[in-house]
UniProtKB/TrEMBL annotation:
Name of the protein described by the UniProt record: Leucine-rich repeat-containing N-terminal plant-type domain-containing protein
Species per Swiss-Prot/TrEMBL record: Malus baccata (Siberian crab apple)
Keywords recorded for this protein, A-Z: Signal
GO MF term set: protein serine/threonine kinase activity
Protein origin, superkingdom: Eukaryota
Signal peptide: 1-28
Pfam annotation, one family: LRR_1
Subcellular location as annotated: Membrane
SUPFAM superfamilies registered for this protein in UniProt: L domain-like (SSF52058)
UniProt membrane topology term: Single-pass type I membrane protein
InterPro entries the record matches: Leu-rich_rpt, LRR_dom_sf, LRR_Rcpt-Like_S/T_Kinase
Gene3D superfamilies named in the record: Ribonuclease Inhibitor
UniProt cross-references to PANTHER family, sorted A to Z: LEUCINE-RICH REPEAT-CONTAINING PROTEIN DDB_G0281931-RELATED, LRR RECEPTOR-LIKE SERINE_THREONINE-PROTEIN KINASE RFK1-RELATED
Amino acid sequence: MQKLAGNLFLFVCFIIIALSCSTHLGLAQLIMLPQQEVYALREIATTMGAKYWTFNAGTCRIETVGLTEKQPKGSEGNTECDCNFENGTVCHIATLTLMGYSLPGLLPPQLVKLPYLRKIDFSYNYLSGTIPKEWASMKLNYFSVLVNRLSGEIPKELGNITNLTDLNLEANQFSGSLPTELGNLVNLQTLMLSSNQLTGYLPETFSGLRILTDL
């Protein structure tokens, strides 16, 4: 009888420890995202014209975005977090994709509130206006606004985003000549500019884009 009671006690202890470990593991898997980045994402979605927005900060996942609650066919709404900060206890938004939602707003200046953002893809929307000059301070590697309604001249400030490896401005309504400052993008590998209303010739500064393979 004592042996049975002892075994029962050990079993109960095992269950308690297992549940405790499971709880701690679940908490550890939750992403610790700064609240200001969560607020910034909502501002960004609103500026881009989204009427619906639900973001799960604990999993770094967009749950609802767009003009309706139902996700359009072929659309992609995605965020990725980089959790290599503070020994893995703090995460930051590194990737933001809002593609194929027919969003009718503007490109959001609020992107600068996501200082660790490296990749944005806002392709296949109805975004208008031009590229915010505020983005010049960002550390983007990848930037695509393929198939939108952006217009005006390409801002020379883009030349300050020297980490860029991929820049896709194709199928918009950009006009004027290409800014010579784009020649500062020495890490650029892909530059897509077709189907716009650009005039003039390629700037001589483009000769410095030595690893550019797609133009």
